[in-house]
Every structure is written in structure tokens, then in C-alpha cells.
Amino acid sequence: xxxxxxxxxxxxxxxxxxxxxxxxxxxxxxxxxxxxxxxxxxxxxxxxxxxxxxxxxxxxxxxxxxxxxxxxxxxxxxxxxxxxxxxxxxxxxxxxxxxxxxxxxxxxxxxxxxxxxxxxxxxxxxxxxxxxxxxxxxxxxxxxxxxxxxxxxxxxxxxxxxxxxxxxxxxxxxxxxxxxxxxxxxxxxxxxxxxxxxxxxxxxxxxxxxxxxxxxxxxxxxxxxxxxxxxxxxxxxxxxxxxxxxxxxxxxxxxxxxxxxxxxxxxxxxxxxxxxxxxxxxxxxxxxxxxxxxxxxxxxxxxxxxxxxxxxxxxxxxxxxxxxxxxxxxxxxxxxxxxxxxxxxxxxxxxxxxxxxxxxxxxxxxxxxxxxxxxxxxxxxxxxxxxxxxxxxxxxxxxxxxxxxxxxxxxxxxxxxxxxxxxxxxxxxx
Length: 430
Ligand code: AMP
Ligand code: MG
What we know:
five-stranded mixed beta sheet
């Protein structure tokens, strides 16, 4: 396993990392999970580890795109309402009929959508252009050769690459794989992500609070974020601020997790920063400042690596490869933004996915946006077409505005204030 950023140095000193440098350090420590074969029904949300090609031409036979009559185009060339072409109907072909039919000149065969075109026919007259006759049919409009015909290979040629490795299996891609005849596909599985909140003040939603306590929202939020990003996420119950409890709780998860995420306990220097205290000792998790807002204090590393050359285990437990761990800040909006900017790409990288980051667009600010000097701000906003409005309530504990946001407005490091009318980069939230 490649060691994490600056492995061995538990606290990265000096000036804050840029967002890009930190993202790059994280991605360099992530290796994709091994591919598995999954049935199509189970593959949705996973990422392809192989190209999917068309086993046969799509479609594999010429067929009708409408309900109507298979004809020789030349037999209906002069047809009109005043002078219909009248043809004897010699049969009917439904979708799924595998019989071999041949169209005799000056006759028609009734045909349904998706049914195989009879030999000799070169066009289909839609039923709407006829009197719908059974024994014979009056055709009121001419049909050109090829009319309402779907030719073999018109969708894809045999052997054509339909989906490439790295593509996420969304419903459209599942449809393509099934259409290509695939029962199973080689995919990288959904990473198993365990989310764990720390804090003596945290209580389970649904239970009463006394002043000094809050409900734990982070573990629910981050587990939901991870699921949305394609992971199989599990939420651990709240871990109190006890350094002796944090490490065993993490250790217990190592064998069942491909990625660990904690929130809280990594502030810039408090004796209650138990996550930092517990993991610092391992030497494989680095705590650093990142030049951003919210989300300045960050931690990342790989723990539990066993075997020769392992990066240092937690009590020797864990997978050979080690388990990447993110220690996100505790304020909910900081945790959310940190997830989207750092964890999401890591989950995608574990899956070998092409789409590492949230989609970004350019939009025009409808109101001013502020940012501290030297830090990149991610402001909650509402994106509406090409316009984006910063929400009020931008502090990192203010979840109300998070609930109203559909976008994060990026204010670059060099800016402290952007006026309305300025064009900005905006991350579109899933
Ligand atoms: P910490 O990073 O532990 O110092 O926490 C920073 C702030 O985030 C404090 O106000 C905490 O109460 C709050 N916080 C920490 N964890 C959670 C959580 N799981 N849910 C909601 N708020 C939290
Ligand atoms: Mg705390």
C-alpha cells in the first residue's frame, strides 16, 4: 500500500495545503478495489471494470418500427386517397414471430412493431396510412424504400464498444448491457464505507436533549453522501470523546470497511480532539490545514495495513492493503463540503470511476459573495439556470441553509469579495 500523504509526519506543519495538492495526495494513496462479476440487477451503481461490446449487431435483424404493412415500396409508389393502392394481405407477423416469411409482389403482410421484416419487403406502410384492411388493404400514401424499417446494425455494429471501463452503471448503462446480451458484467464493487461520529455532546435523533447536547446529524448525512456517491455505507453509533475508545471502535471496523470516515475531534488543538489524539500515534494519518472554508482542519491516511511492508496497523488488524481513513471536521457544513471535495473523489477512485468530482458549471452571482483571504470558499447557494444566489447563514454550523442549497459557489483564494454580476464556478450538488 502506498503510504498516505506525508506518512510518518502525523501533523503537517507549515502553510496550509491547497485544495488541489490535498486532493492529489489523497488520490495517490487510493488503489481501486478488485473487480468482481455481478449479475446485471446487482451491478447498478457499480463501475465497469471492462468494456461492454455488442455480442451481435443491434438490432440483429431488419424489423418494423411501426404497426402496419410490409410492402414493396414500388407497389405503393403512386398511392393516394383518391387512387389507393389495393394489395392482398397474405399474413401477419407479430413481434417474436420467428417464422421465415417472403413477400410476394403486389401483396402486403401485416406487421407489428419489432417484428421481423419478411424477405423481399423494403418498406412498411404505417396502419394510419391505410384502411386497416384484413383480407386486403387500401394504402393511401406512398412509402419510400426503408420507410419505418429498423435495419440490422442500425443501432450498433457487432463488436462495437457500447460502454467503456470506468463508466458507472446507471439505469441507461444497465439497459445497454442487457441489450447487448450480458447476464453479468465485471465491475468494481460499491466500496464499504463506515461512518463514525465522535463527541460527548452528541445524542441520537429522537431522544431528548438537555442544554449542552445536540443531535448527531453528521453520521446520517455522511453515510447518505457516501451512498449517493456509490458506496455501501454503514453508520456507526456515536463514539464519546474518549481517546481510549476511538481506536478500538475504528479497529473493529477495519475488516469490514474499504474506507473509514470520522467526523469531529480534529480541531486545531484541544484536549478533546480525540480522533487526532488516537490516530496521531499511528504515524500513518496526517492532520493538516487546507486553505479552504469551511473545512480547514483535515486528516487523511491509511490504517490497518498488514503484511510485509505494511504502513503500520492498528493492533495488527486489518486488510493487507490498509484502509483509507478521512477524519472530517465536526461542524456539519464543514463535514459536508469536505466530503464532496475530498471523500467523493476517493470513493470514485476506489471504484475506478471516470467521474471523480461533482459536475461544475459557470454561473452569474445575483448577490455579493465574501471569502477570507488566501482560502477558497465553498458557499451554499441556489443555482437557477445561469444565475446563482448565495444563501444567508454561511457559518459552518448553520445547517438550515444547507437544506436550502443545491450548489456550492466557489470563491477563489485570491478573492475576498465578489460583486453581483461576477461569473463564478459552481459545484452542482447531487
Ligand atoms: P469538533 O470538530 O469535534 O470540535 O466539533 C466542531 C463542532 O461540530 C461542534 O460544535 C460540535 O458540536 C459539532 N459537531 C461535531 N460532531 C457533530 C455531529 N456528528 N453532528 C452534529 N454536529 C456535530
Ligand atoms: Mg468534538
